[in-house]
């Protein structure tokens, strides 16, 4: 089972789509990561279980 999943997300600031790696081993969690295009902080709420991503919500960090 692959516990790391690459998932496309859209930046709430600039609208660009880029991939983030979700670590599903820890279950659902929240994190803040910078957009790879505009470098602004994005707050992600990640809903997952080991091996599967159920959903990601991106909001202004």
How many discrete domains? Answer: 1
Number of helices: 0
Q: Tell the overall outline.
A: elongated
Mean pLDDT: 95
Q: What this model shows, in words?
A:
- It is a single chain.
- The chain is an all-beta fold.
- It has one domain (4-60).
- The protein is built from no helices and 5 strands.
- The chain has strands spanning 4-10, 17-23, 29-34, 41-49, 52-60.
- The strands form 2 sheets. Strands 3-4-5 form a 3-stranded antiparallel β-sheet, with no helix packed on it. The chain has a two-stranded antiparallel sheet with strand order 1-2.
- The termini are far apart.
- The mean pLDDT is 95.
Which secondary structure elements does this structure contain, and how are they paired or packed?
Elements: E1 4-10, E2 17-23, E3 29-34, E4 41-49, E5 52-60
Antiparallel strand pairs: 1-2, 3-4, 4-5
Features:
61 residues, mainly beta, three-stranded antiparallel beta sheet, two-stranded antiparallel sheet, elongated
The gist of it:
By secondary structure, the chain is an all-beta fold.
């Amino acid at each position: 089972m692959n516990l790391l999943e690459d998932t496309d997300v859209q930046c709430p600031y600039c609208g660009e789509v880029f991939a983030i790696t979700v670590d599903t081993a820890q279950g659902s969690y929240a994190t803040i990561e910078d957009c790879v295009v505009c470098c602004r902080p994005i707050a992600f709420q990640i809903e997952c279980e080991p091996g599967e991503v159920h959903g990601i919500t991106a909001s202004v960090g």
